[in-house]
Every structure is written in structure tokens, then in C-alpha cells.
Specification:
single chain, about 300 residues, alpha/beta, Rossmann fold, 9-stranded mixed β-sheet, 3-stranded antiparallel β-sheet, 14 strands, globular
Length: about 300
């Protein structure tokens, strides 16, 4: 037998005992399912669990009241659809309620992200002084090494989580971590996803769409690498009103922009599958509006 064949046989015989176990063995490690308030009007009611009603024996829904705890959520869309606003609102809302958030900024240096977060806090009615110590910024935009070497980024993030005891992580945007090497997107996202699970962080990733991608699909830069790995994908899009039919349906003038929102999938819990209107208020806050089917039925 050749040395190569002996090596292969030896590798096949290796057993990873820690990878095998019953559900009973995992009982204490299975997390509870509950909602983390997002601070985004109309979003938290779109996630739910089901139960059987004792009286009529029918399946009923129970609203989760937030995004699923310890889930990793990808928010994707073209530019100017509200992706960064959504994650900023989430970070500010968590910080205002006393929970620390690690905010990894990949596109813009941290002082400018801080300026946006400050505006979001003002619009949401929170005092900046009460929340500024609960948002920990990790500036990967300024420090190239964190964008080019994922191990360095994760080591820095590990330090932030242990030093500040964060409960959530925001990455805006994860696309910037593989923009020059999209063939490695799946590997990059998998490492970060597993990291979030290991350190028990509820996470929101922002990812950018290419202009050639279908508007309401979960595909983003790097293909479907992100949506295939994360727990949940949220898709944002926008549509230019250019005819009378759309103008009447959306009750908006010709030439205006309509933004849309859809939860593409969530393997953690039940969710609303419909496409909704999405509004960005004058103060820069994102709100989820009614479903399109409700608008058409009117």
C-alpha cells in the first residue's frame, strides 16, 4: 500500500467525538427563541412563532416582538434603499435600552458613522449622552488590515465583545470584506457567521447589490453566498413611478420613488412573506408600511 493511500485511510478513520450528540445532550445549550426589539416601526410584528390553541385546536400565530434572538440577518439592496438606516436604528435602540452593540464600519470612517448614529438617536427621541457609551465602533474603513485579513478583524471583534460585553454586532457592509475577491465570499461569510454563533451575538449584516441583480432577490455581491449561510435575509428595493397606473396604485406622483421591503426567508422562526412598502421619514427613520396586496385590494 502506498504512503498516500495509508494517509487517506488514516484520515477516514479519524472520529470527531465532540461533533456527535443527542438533543438531550444539547438541552442546556439550545437558546430560547424570543424577539429583540429593532427600533424600526412595523418590523417587529413580522416575525412570529406558532402554537396550537387548546380550545379550537387550530394553529395560531404569536408575534415574536422583534428580530429573532441570536439570529444572523442579512439586509441587502441597491443604494439608497435604507439598509444603513435600518442597522443604525437597531444599534441606537439597543443602546438606548442599555445593551451594548459592536458596530463594525467598513465603508465610512467611524467619526462619520458616529454623526449618522447621533442623528438617528435625535430622530428616535433618545438622549445621545445616555447611549454613546453603549455603541462600540470598530473602524475597519480606516484600518485596511481588518478588511484584508478576516482573522485580524475577528480578533479585534473578539476583544470588543469580551471587553464591553456586547450583545449585538452590526457590520456595514460585509461586502467590503470581499469586494476585491468575490470568489472567496462564501468562505469569508461562513467564518463571520460561525464567529457570531460562537460568541452568542445577534448580528445584522449589510450587503450591497450589483445593478444587474434582480431588485427583490436576496442575491448580492458575491452571489448567493450570504443568503445561503445566514439565518435570515431582508431585501430592500426601490421603484421609480413612471406611469399613471403605478401612480394611482401607490398614490404617489409620477417621478417619485417607491421603496419596497421583503423578508426573503428566515429559518429561525415564522415570518411574513409579503412585499411591503418601506418609508424613509423626513428625519431619516425607516418604517415598514402595509403589504402591497393590502394596497391593491383597496
Amino acid at each position: 500500500m502506498s504512503e498516500i493511500q495509508k494517509g487517506r485511510d488514516k484520515k477516514r478513520e479519524e472520529i470527531i467525538y465532540d461533533a456527535v450528540g443527542t438533543l438531550e445532550d444539547l438541552r442546556e445549550r439550545i437558546p430560547k427563541l424570543f424577539g429583540i426589539p429593532s427600533g424600526i416601526k412595523g418590523l417587529d410584528e413580522l416575525f412570529y412563532t406558532t402554537y396550537i390553541d387548546e380550545e379550537d385546536k387550530k394553529i395560531k400565530r404569536k408575534t415574536l416582538g422583534g428580530i429573532p434572538y441570536l439570529s444572523v440577518i442579512n439586509i441587502t439592496g441597491v443604494s439608497d434603499t435604507g439598509k444603513s438606516l435600518m442597522v443604525e436604528q437597531y444599534a441606537v435602540n439597543q443602546a438606548a435600552h442599555g445593551y451594548k452593540v459592536a458596530f463594525v464600519t467598513v465603508e465610512s470612517p467611524s467619526p462619520f458613522v458616529g454623526m449618522g448614529l447621533k442623528e438617528r438617536a435625535k430622530a428616535m427621541g433618545f438622549e445621545w449622552e445616555k447611549i454613546e457609551n453603549n455603541i462600540i465602533l470598530i473602524d475597519a474603513a480606516t484600518h485596511d488590515i481588518m478588511r484584508e485579513d478576516i482573522s485580524t478583524l475577528l480578533s479585534t471583534l473578539e476583544y470588543a465583545i469580551s471587553e464591553y460585553n456586547t450583545k449585538s454586532v452590526v457590520i456595514d457592509s460585509i461586502t467590503g470584506l470581499f469586494e476585491a475577491k468575490e470568489m472567496m465570499a462564501r468562505s469569508v461569510v461562513r467564518k463571520i457567521f460561525n464567529f457570531m454563533k460562537r460568541y452568542k451575538q445577534t448580528a445584522l449584516f449589510v450587503s450591497q447589490k450589483r445593478s444587474s441583480h434582480e431588485e427583490l432577490s436576496a442575491e448580492a455581491a458575491g452571489g448567493y453566498a450570504i443568503s445561503h449561510i445566514v439565518d435570515c435575509s431582508i431585501v430592500l428595493s426601490k421603484e421609480l413611478i413612471m406611469n399613471r397606473y403605478l401612480s394611482q396604485m401607490y398614490n404617489s406622483p409620477i417621478g417619485s420613488v417607491i421603496r419596497l421591503f421583503r423578508i426573503d426567508g428566515c429559518r429561525v422562526c415564522g415570518h411574513d412573506t409579503r412585499t411591503h412598502l418601506l418609508y424613509i421619514t423626513e428625519s431619516g427613520l425607516v418604517e415598514i408600511g402595509p403589504a402591497l396586496e393590502e394596497i391593491i385590494s383597496r
